[in-house]
Amino acid sequence: MSYIPHVPVLLKESIEYLVTDPNGIYVDATLGGGGHSKEILSALSDDGRLFGLDQDAEAHKAAALKIGDDSRFTPISGNFGYLKTLINPDLHGKITGIFYDLGVSTHQIKEGDRGFSFMEEGPLDMRMSALTGLTAHQVVNEYSYEKLRDIIFHYGEERFSREIAQEIISRRPLETTHDLREAVSSVVFGKHTIKSIARVFQGIRIEVNRELDVLKESLEQAIDILKMDGRIVAISYHSLEDRIVKNFFKSGNESGKIEKDFYGNPQNPLTPITKNIVTPSEEEIKANPAARSAKLRAAVKTGESE
Ligand SMILES: C[S@@+](CC[C@H](N)C(=O)[O-])C[C@H]1O[C@@H](n2cnc3c(N)ncnc32)[C@H](O)[C@@H]1O
Description:
Elements: H1 11-18, E1 25-28, H2 35-43, E2 49-54, H3 57-67, E3 73-77, H4 83-86, E4 95-101, H5 106-110, H6 136-142, H7 145-155, H8 161-171, H9 177-185, H10 193-209, H11 211-225, E5 226-236, H12 239-251, E6 270-272, H13 282-287, E7 295-301
Parallel strand pairs: 1-2, 1-4, 2-3, 4-5
Antiparallel strand pairs: 5-7, 6-7
The site of S-adenosylmethionine has 22 residues, from helix 2 and strand 2.
């Protein structure tokens, strides 16, 4: 099966914020098809290094083709929730920049067999890594009404969560993306149907891959492995992810509240460097509609984490 190309989003802006030292050590935590990694490598000197992480084996194959033979690049298979374990301890405290381009790639969305998209017929899977235990099939067919409703409401931000959860349960077993789409469209009518379907798919995908928890776990570890003055650059595609990134960048924790030490000194390990969020230009969105919801934030390490 061939890799459906992923057009990198906010490419120029990402590199501008991320690469402060051409001789530095960088981590692309979401390698995907290697679009951003390739660009990071072209901004580095012969002494620079880049680690490219992804939990999806298909992404690694595509990135290897894109990047080719480059001794400065090291691919790493794994989940960025284990960032600290995946990056050699000798390099902890020495990383110059860490990059996240969150969510799913075009390949994952468009490849029907992965079950991510309501536009493609496929099994209810939605796992970014074949190693992950939970599938969308289990969530849809085995979760209680309350759990399903809450996922659709909190992770999908869908207000008809009760009706949809009830309908899914009454139609069990659901086998395909088409079955799930049908369940939603039989209770949400009119012009909102497509948006509701998209939100339900988003909610279930977040649950299957534990996306929000993993992001929090990863950002905590990112602070630890960065060197002082090192940067984190993150592109998010929905408000739940963006809120986590925003809060971490402000305070170093998910609450967004800056803690103070005994003497009242603020304890924030990061300082945001993007005053306003960076978003794609009209031209970029026109050329690549998948970029439309992208929000880029960057922060610099200015203090130690607890
Ligand atoms: C939006 S794509 C990245 C595209 C990439 N920047 C490019 O230019 O081709 C996101 C990638 O991150 C990976 N990913 C998402 N969550 C992950 C996680 N927790 N650990 C490792 N990889 C993850 C996905 O498998 C996907 O390949």
